[in-house]
């Protein structure tokens, strides 16, 4: 019976060890993620290491795809990420990326992009954003957008309230930019990026819903209708003044914070990184996390977003699930130690009882021997 109890305790040790070995990798990863939960860049690194460990060729494949689509900026982002992760790339591949970047940064390409951004208000790279921001700084771009959408509003037609609100906010910020001699530049660029991303149809559904609510709060609709009814792109200064009067600056705090974060991403990682963020982020908190990643990772940001998507802006799993892995590991450890304790106690008790029985037998044998010896006269 004693041997059975010892055997059961030893089975408990083996079972606890097996469960602990199975849980440990998950618990270790969970602990690492939880420790980095307030550091978006560190979390992105953890997930990237996992992705690239499973498929080291992923970076070179994405570089080829980016070059094939004419996106030299994304290809360069992957080259930078490869250098950070010590992943070797062929000389031919890196040369093709360099050549593509030189071509896209040429004077002719920049001038064409600037003109496109200035006239159409659509930004897709540094050149076109420069033109778009220039148009907005000279109030032409924002006035154009407000008058266009405002006319729809006055006529009772479908109106893009988001573009309307962002343009109105942009006019107010433009005035602040001039007053601060460019101090509000990132905010101005951020508003332009959000507005242009919306116009291009690349803003995530979550951000469309959030920004729509925010912009409706910051615009005085009756005052805006009156300004638009009498406004014109041919009188940008007068029209801008009337539109700014319809802007409620005291209600614009959340919108301003988002625009600042988008501007920070654009400054740290480039215009396209900001556009990519607006495409995957579903709320202001995720955009703020992207801004922190961009400030640390810089040019790698687009590659990170391409590989991880929205997952780069989220905790890898729910905190509850991660905590349960750690709790499971602690239970396995407790079971292992308890089983060792039980095994030791039962083995010791068995050995003591066995020793006692042996000593008793020896004593009885000695007494029997003495009893069998003839008495000495």
Summarize this structure as a short list of keywords or feature phrases.
377 residues; mainly alpha; 2 domains; 79% helix; transmembrane helix; transmembrane; membrane
Strand and helix layout:
Layout: H1 2-35, H2 40-54, H3 58-68, H4 72-84, H5 91-104, H6 107-120, H7 126-137, H8 140-154, H9 161-179, H10 185-199, H11 205-218, H12 221-230, H13 236-244, H14 253-269, H15 271-280, H16 284-297, H17 301-308, H18 319-372
Q: Strand share of the residues?
A: under 5%
> Judging from the principal axes of the Cα atoms, what is the shape?
elongated
Helix/strand order: HHHHHHHHHHHHHHHHHH
Helix content: over 70%
Task: Please give the number of β-strands.
Answer: 0
How many domains, in number, for the residues? 2
Mean pLDDT: 74
Query: Radius of gyration, rounded?
Result: 35 Å
Biggest sheet character: none
**Structural class by SSE content:** mainly alpha
List the total number of helices.
18
Could you name the ranges where pLDDT drops below 50 across 5 or more consecutive residues? Answer: 178-183
Spatial separation of the terminal alpha carbons: 49 Å
